Amino acid sequence: MRSDALDITIESRNGVIWLMLSGPFHNEQVPNMREKLMSLMEDGNRQFVIDLENIRAIDDGVVSSFFLNLLNMLKGKGGDVKFIFKNEIVHRAFTPYLNLFSVYPDEATLAAGNFLGLLRQRGMLMSKKTGVRLSRPVALLLLIVLAGWFLTLAFIINLQNTRIHEQQTELHELTTWKQRSIIELNALKERIKPMEQLGILKADSLKR
Description:
Elements: E1 7-13, E2 16-25, H1 30-42, E3 47-58, H2 60-76, E4 80-84, H3 88-94, E5 102-104, H4 107-112, H5 115-130, H6 136-197
Parallel strand pairs: 2-3, 3-4, 4-5
Antiparallel strand pairs: 1-2
């Protein structure tokens, strides 16, 4: 087992649990992280933000075996989890699942609330720096054009969010069905084991 430590900082901010992780995140560290998250959820926490920007290595199975299950579990309980990162190492690990997760490059973007809020914030900063002034007719025309563009963008984002929600629901249902099937299969094996031991039923016959 690798001895590299995964540093974890946990904070509560306005009812949201923030986890800042740094260092390497290996598969063998998943059970410990799962235990911590389960403990937090048992205390009634349902909203999480996980900052992975300082992760310098992450195993391939961490996203699928831990973060995806965490998302499904929280969605099933009416909660949610958001991620903060922009480093290439974490991005590569999350790439196959980016349409399922809410990912933000930094805290400022997350705090802005949405893309429109971020654009507004950037626009205010640019105005203060450049001192650009527009005439009223030009400003009005620009406002109309931007409003139409934003409405179109909002419509597209809403369609995408709907699709993502449907995929999350379907994934949750498939995961639940798989777990239930495994339990039923194990129970069936336990029921036929005495018949195999008595020679009434041969194990080879089950494979035909």
